[in-house]
Automatic annotation (TrEMBL):
Protein known as: WYL domain-containing protein
Domain of life where this protein originates: Bacteria
Boundaries of every WYL domain copy: 59-123
PROSITE patterns: WYL
Length: 155
């Protein structure tokens, strides 16, 4: 049930039919008793939100790998004003918040932490190992982000 619920939520996060394909593959490998439970849950549910953030599963996979393995990551980034820049970062953590995937990273060229929306990332490429010293900036990342990277008191 948890897998079906998660994949239904992911339908609006991932571009294409990645969630549907994952459900079909799960159904093929499960024992008959569990396959019936999965198939019933899938048939009896849908994501009615209708919005899609359009994150390419391949992009998400590259960024998750870079964050998990402490790799330097290069990509093109389109900001909220439609300006496109090249970025070179050390990925710290991928986050899902407010209907979007983000990557928290240390921007090597700006020498500062940045948060990038994954649906604005193009052509990501993980490269050499990072410095190894780009840890989580705070235990509670939600609070840290809500306080403008820890620069302001919580509201």
């Amino acid at each position: 049930m948890a897998l079906v619920a998660t994949l239904r939520m992911a339908e609006r996060i991932l571009a294409g039919d990645a969630s549907q394909r994952a459900l079909a593959k799960l159904s093929q490998v499960l024992p008959q008793r569990l396959r019936t439970v999965l198939d019933d849950a899938a048939a009896g549910s849908e994501n009615a939100d209708g919005r899609g953030a359009g994150v390419d599963p391949a992009t998400l996979a590259v960024l998750l790998r870079a964050a998990g393995q402490d790799l330097v990551l290069g990509f093109r980034y389109r900001d909220q004003h439609e300006a496109v820049t090249r970025r070179r970062v050390e990925a710290v953590r991928c986050l899902y918040a407010r209907g979007h995937w983000y990557v928290l990273a240390y921007d090597l060229d700006a020498a500062d932490r940045r948060v990038f929306r994954l649906d604005r990332v193009r052509e990501p490429a993980a490269g050499q190992p990072g410095s190894g010293d780009r840890r989580r900036p705070a235990e509670d990342l939600a609070a840290w982000l809500a306080t403008d990277f820890g620069r302001h008191a919580p509201s």
